[in-house]
Design goal:
44% of the residues lie in helices and 15% in strands. The chain is of the alpha/beta class. It has a seven-stranded parallel β-sheet, with helices on both faces. Helix 4 packs parallel to helix 5. The N and C termini lie far apart (42 Å). The structure holds NADP nicotinamide-adenine-dinucleotide phosphate. NADP nicotinamide-adenine-dinucleotide phosphate binds next to helix 1. Keywords: Oxidoreductase.
């Protein structure tokens, strides 16, 4: 144990959607800081991420579950607590995007995105929050998006879900800040993952996006990990209800 406010020794984290992309990078960074990690993906329980966590000398479990299935939320928190002993950190990272013009946007896609991107974050926070309230401490980090602030193009359900995530973050922070729980969010900019594969494949859109990023490059999943570690650690103990933009400068432009 050290007095380093960025260490997470003895802590247990559940990171949803940590089989790949941003979630995998966050899970690995938390393990490097000393946390044991419950990994998760929809189909892949996060084998590669578990390997990375174990190589860092930390314990890992992996769970495959579709967050559109509400029973999965209870099971994720139950298994994390049963198998790793407690839950100190919840990172609501799993999410998906579907693109279509608004008049063609299907009810099915709307319902799925709201359920997975927003409702699951609320229900997981409620489940983990109960335990954090009992132990008098906890950290919840929600992964929002620049589309918590902007409307985007052809992504009405995604923008609505991420706007909702930013508001949920503030609502939970207001209730739980005095009870030892920090609830914050990260709004990543344009990061090179499966989520943005279609955008990066569209030469015109890709060029327009790149031209607007002051850092002059797409972000990498690892660009998000440092911000996540800060919000999961003692270092951020007086930070509540904040949506931290990590975007290569996009929002300043
Ligand atoms: P990604 O590489 O596509 O990873 C998404 C993760 O979420 C995967 O592990 C996936 O599991 C999981 N997931 C998707 N649908 C799920 C479902 N129905 N049930 C359970 N898990 C599900 O995307 P990413 O870019 O790392 O995205 C991570 C988060 O960052 C998302 O919330 C996304 O909205 C947000 N974000 C991304 C960007 C960006 O530019 N990439 C920008 C802003 C915000 P499987 O792999 O098993 O399908």
């Amino acid at each position: 144990m050290t007095n380093n406010p960025f260490r997470l020794d003895g802590k247990v984290a559940l990171v949803t959607g940590s089989a790949l992309g941003i979630g995998a990078s966050i899970a690995t960074a938390l393990a490097a800081a000393g946390a044991d990690v419950a990994c998760h993906g929809k189909d892949d329980p996060g084998e590669a991420t578990m390997d990375a966590v174990r190589k860092l000398g930390r314990r890992a479990i992996g769970m495959a579950a579709d967050l559109a299935d509400r029973a999965a939320h209870t099971e994720l928190v139950r298994r994390t607590t049963a198998e790793l002993g407690r839950i100190d950190i919840l990172v609501n990272n799993a999410g998906l995007i579907r693109r279509a013009p608004a008049v063609e946007y299907s009810d099915e896609d709307w319902d799925l995105l709201i359920e997975v991107n927003l409702t699951s974050a609320f229900r997981l926070s409620r489940l983990a929050g109960k335990q954090m309230l009992e132990q008098g401490s906890g950290k919840i980090v929600n992964i929002a998006s620049l589309l918590a602030f902007q409307g985007g193009i052809l992504v009405p359900a995604y923008a609505a879900s991420k706007g909702g995530i930013a508001q949920l973050t503030k609502a939970l922070a207001n209730e739980w800040a005095a009870k030892g729980i920090n609830v914050n969010a990260i709004a990543p900019g344009y990061i090179a993952t499966d989520n943005t594969a279609a955008l990066r494949a569209d030469e015109g859109r890709s060029r327009q996006i790149l031209e607007r990023i002051p850092a002059a490059r797409w972000g990498e999943p690892s660009d998000i990990a440092g911000a996540a570690l800060f919000l999961c650690a003692e270092a951020s103990k007086y930070v509540h209800g904040h949506v931290l933009v990590v975007d290569g400068g996009w929002m300043s432009r």
